[in-house]
Amino acid sequence: MNNGKQSFAALLALLVLVPFAWGNGLNLNSLGTRALTMGGAFVGLADDFSVVFWNPAGAAGFKSKYFGFYGTDLIPVNKYRLDVPLQGGIMTLVDAKTKMSHYLGGMAAYYHPVSDRLVLGIGVYTPSGLGANWEGSDFAALTGNKSYDWTSKVGMVSISPLIAYKISDMISIGATLNVNYGMFSIKMHAGEAELPVPPYALDLGQYEESMNGWGLGATFGVLVKPSQAVSFGLAVRTPSAVKYKGDAQISNLSRLGYSGTSGLHRDLTFPLWIAGGVAVRPMDKLLLTADVQWTKWSEIKSLNTDFTDPAWKALMRLGGQDVRKMDWSDKAQLRFGAEYLLSGSLALRGGYYHDPTPSPDTTMNVLLPSFTFNVVTFGAGYKVADLQLDFGLEYLMGKERNVDYIKTVTDPAFKSAMPGTFKMHLVVPNVSVGFRF
Fold first, then answer.
1. Distance between CA atoms of 298 and 93, rounded to whole angstroms?
2. Which of 65, 105, 295, 400 can bridge 129 by disulfide, Cβ–Cβ 3.0-4.6 Å?
3. How far apart are CA 117 and CA 173, in angstroms?
4. Quick one: pLDDT band at residue 311, thresholds 50, 70, 90?
């Protein structure tokens, strides 16, 4: 294997493994407009069609057939700046902002009371859906003054049949089976390979990767209502191992004597989630909620990639890059919400939650960055007979992240990180319609 092919191993590992970073910022942390506009503090309340996501025990309280639909549009704005220190000053190589993009998500759920105590249901929803869409020309200084596509898109759809049972007037339990279908795609510059002869470097062109996969999990919940004014909830979502498979390609790789395409497999376990919440009605018109939601992100220690093409497999293994350390840490979210009834038909809502990123700086990159978010939510609901209409807006303020350029050059722990300054915020409008019949 010549030197050009050997040096390409580390480059290929970086391109393929770095983008597949997953964090709270990629998840739709709130589903259902009423729940979302109350800061996602809904586990202890769990009284509308979004219970299939939050706490399935809440469905035991439904006395009639119930259908609900929720739609949302995630509109992210990412900014990235790369300043390289030089002797006597700083040179800005990249000063970029993502294009206006829309990432749609939603939920549809139906519940059918079988008896006074037993309720069956099913929900289809998107627990994840986000991405990045950069102007390729903004990265021209890093790509030989050529413009390439720099985009990513990640999403998941869950199909969840539900069963809920009221043990007594005070205690209800529920569970769902979660059938998860995950999707992932990415486009970026493939970099350069060093050659031992003129022209000594080869532009590898466009890199593309597309994968999808299936996984199974479950959610269990309990809801306790000691009085009409107070309720407590606990929900547990089990880990779900999603087995992704797909294809990767590099447009100019064949010039090095390799196939330009390889199949790949990558397994990712979405970790254990445990949430507890309380809902209190201190007066007839005011409802207050609070949740603590904990995710065992430390289950994600590394990402392992298996390439079906023997040459790709050998290149990755040669550089020791078919296994990539993640070293994520467990995180807890604190959530608070309020609802005030202006009348019997109109309600105003607001909320706040803090969402810390589980990922260290060593995994940061522009295509799927992860941030610590402070989030404010607000909205309104209007009820007409058995029809409920809800409108909401969520604003996520990402904490700026900085990856030191010198560390990416000198510290092996940062070999997969992109240096620079990262900023992000999201605007998330949403609407829900619920109907009982």
1. 34
2. 105
3. 10
4. confident
DSSP 224-272: EEEETTEEEEEEEE--EEEEEEEEEEETTGGGGTS-SEEEEEEEEEEPP
| CA–CA gap between residue 277 and residue 116 (Å, rounded) | 25
Q: Which two tokens stand for residue 334?
A: 């604190």
Strand partners, 55: none
Which residue, among 337, 368, 354, has the nearest Cα to 22 in the 3D structure?
368
Contacts of 255 (CB under 8 A, 6+ apart): 202
CA-to-CA distance for 295 and 284, rounded, in angstroms? Answer: 34
β-sheet bridge partners, residue 202: 193
The DSSP call for residue 98 is P
- Mark out the alpha helices in 251-393 (DSSP H runs): 310-318
In the chain, where are the structural domains located? 3-436
Closest CA to 337 of 105, 63, 32: 32
Structure tokens at 323: 């296994």
CATH superfamily label, 3-436: Outer membrane protein transport protein (OMPP1/FadL/TodX) (2.40.160.60)
Q: Give the model confidence (pLDDT) of 168-224 as tens digits.
A: 999 999 999 999 999 988 898 888 877 777 777 888 899 898 999 999 999 999 999
Residue 28 — pLDDT band, cuts 50, 70, 90? low
- Minimal CA–CA distance to 240: which of 177, 174, 196? 177
Predicted TM-score of the model (pTM):
0.88
Among 246, 243, 299, 248, which residue's Cα sits nearest to residue 273?
299
